[in-house]
Structures are given as C-alpha cells and as structure tokens.
Automatic annotation (TrEMBL):
Pfam families in UniProt: Formyl_trans_C, Formyl_trans_N
Record-annotated Formyl transferase N-terminal domain positions: 2-173
Record GO terms (molecular function): methionyl-tRNA formyltransferase activity
Swiss-Prot/TrEMBL keywords: Protein biosynthesis, Transferase
Designated gene of the protein: fmt
Name the UniProt record assigns to this protein: Methionyl-tRNA formyltransferase
Catalytic activity, as annotated: L-methionyl-tRNA(fMet) + (6R)-10-formyltetrahydrofolate = N-formyl-L-methionyl-tRNA(fMet) + (6S)-5,6,7,8-tetrahydrofolate + H(+)
Domain Formyl transferase C-terminal: 204-299
Length: 308
C-alpha cells in the first residue's frame, strides 16, 4: 500500500522504520508537527520523525493544522491508500480523514477503551495497572473511540517508568501496526467496535499534577514519580526552590512525618502518610542531576526542614 505516515516524537520511530523497511508498503510521505525549539540553546530542530524521513529521502509535510487547504491538496495528490498514525500530536479533521481509502489507522499505547487520551502510559503506571498494551484502531472524530483492529499486551513492571514502558510498547506496537496494515491490505482484517464499558480517560499530566504530596501513601508517591519520569518530572520544594525527584524506593516499616527528611552520608529518606521512601536521584532547580546523598551533603538539611 501507499502510505503517508503521521507522527512526531521518538516514540513513533520504531513504527516508521518498520514500515520503511516493509516489502509490502511504500511510505511516500510523512506528516509531522512543525519544527520546534529544543535543547539548551533553544535552537529550532525538526521532529525525530522528520529527521528520519529526510534521512530516508521521504517527503516531509509540516502543516500548522491538518485542515490547512494546501496540506489537504498535497495529501490528495499523494493518493495514499492508508495513513498510519503514531503520536502525531494534533487533531485530524474529517476532511483529512476522508482522503485515504482505508482511512487513518492509529497505534495507541493502551488497551482501548482504557486510557483514551494524551497520556495513556503515564496513567497506567499512576493507577497501578498490572497489564497494559497497545491498540491499532480506525480513527474517527471522537477521541480514540474508533473500531479496533488488533491489540498487544505488556506487563507493567514494578520499576517501570513511563519512559521504559513506552520504549517497550513502541517496539511491540510497531510490529502490531505493520501486521494490521498487512491484514487491511489483504482484506483479512476487520475492525471491531470498542466495548461500551471500561472507558477511562488519560489527559496530559501537567507540571502542577507532578508535584508530590507527601501526605499521600508511599505507594501513590512511588507511582506518581515513575509515571512522571522522564516528563514532566515529579517535583517538590525545599527552601522555596523546586527539586525534581527520580524514582524512589519504599522502605517498609520505616515511619517519618510527611515530608520529613532523614539524611545520612549516603541515603535520604522522606516521610509519607505510610512508609518512608528512599530518594534515588534528584535535580535541584537550575542544577544537574545528582544522587540524593550528594544533594544532602551539599544542602545539609536541618532537623526541622521538610519537603513541601
């Protein structure tokens, strides 16, 4: 099939590479978000998907909106049979959805109808899901509600962050997307409506959402920190400045007051509503990432100082 691939971040790269290498399909163009500022110098860079496509000699389309007339005209000229989508990051109007004869097929990183929305992996970790996965489905106007082609499952490990879990899902999901497109081309795969029950929503986790509330149980704090790693990064305040917190370890049986800091030369424990947690790596505002012990040796928290 002739494909126009839509995607933006690194998460989409395994799928794009798989489809570029597929003997059955031809990626004639990619659609991605416009170049954006990134890095310390805030220089303008192409998206990871755009960079890979340009390296492969594939046309790159960067519409401000997917409903832009010039973009729609070019999409029609390309005559794609199907438009696979992985983390594109923008809404698709009906005028775009109507162009390819097999529609737009999305790879979404949850087992739909669970965790529809922008942050399915983060919410799976935050809510303590033991199993998650990836789903291919036909895009319709309603958010992540289209009929499903296929699913792969993945265990959520006790030490998973959103980053590590998404990395595994992006690889297994790439295989699922390729197999889905093969089945659609063969006419052997039929999309089935999603169940009406079990719908949950996964909105984007904001910086404010990522603030640690030390009056919550240790298990909740552990999940929040892992869900927010690497982005947006869980954080707390110390002496009026933000400190980002990396994954923690629950210390069973050790109790401290909520937010209380107990530091030695090598370890930093913080109190929660239940057991204390041991900090791993932290990043003070405006400084580099460092071990919690190194941080404590530098700031020397006093006995009445707490994380807020």
């Amino acid at each position: 099939m002739r494909l126009v691939f839509a995607g933006t971040p690194e998460t989409a790269l395994p799928s794009l590479r798989t489809l570029i290498d597929s003997p059955r399909h031809e990626v004639v163009a990619v659609v991605t978000r416009p170049d954006a500022q990134s890095g310390r110098g805030r220089k303008v860079h192409p998206s990871p998907v755009a960079a890979l496509a340009e390296e492969a000699g594939i046309e790159v389309l960067r519409p401000q909106k997917a409903g832009d007339p010039a973009f729609l005209d070019r999409l029609r000229e390309l005559e794609p049979d199907c438009c696979p989508v992985v983390a594109y990051g923008a809404l698709l109007p009906q005028s775009a959805l109507d162009v390819p004869r097999h529609g737009w097929i999305n790879l979404h990183f949850s087992i739909l109808p669970a965790w529809r929305g922008a942050a399915p992996v983060q919410h799976a970790i935050l809510h303590g899901d033991e199993i998650t996965g990836a789903t291919t489905f036909q895009i319709v106007k309603e958010l992540d509600a289209g009929p499903v082609y296929g699913v792969v499952t993945e265990e959520v490990r006790a030490d998973d962050t959103s980053g590590t879990l998404l990395e595994r899902l992006s690889v297994s999901g790439a295989g699922l997307l390729a197999a889905t497109l093969d089945g659609v081309e063969d006419g052997a795969l039929e999309a089935r409506p999603q169940p009406a029950d079990g719908v949950t929503i996964a909105p984007k986790i904001s910086v404010d959402d990522a603030r640690i509330d030390w009056t919550k149980p240790a298990m909740h704090i552990d999940r929040l920190v892992r869900a927010c790693a690497p982005n947006p990064g869980a954080w707390t305040e110390f002496r009026g400045q933000r400190v980002k917190v990396g994954p923690v370890r629950v210390v069973a049986g050790k109790r401290l007051a909520a937010g209380e800091i107990s530091a030695t030369k090598t370890t930093v424990l913080v109190g929660t509503a239940t057991d204390a947690v041991e900090l791993g790596e932290v990043q003070p505002q405006g400084k580099r990432l460092m071990g919690a012990g190194e941080w404590a040796r530098g700031v020397r928290p006093e006995g009445d100082e707490v994380f807020a």
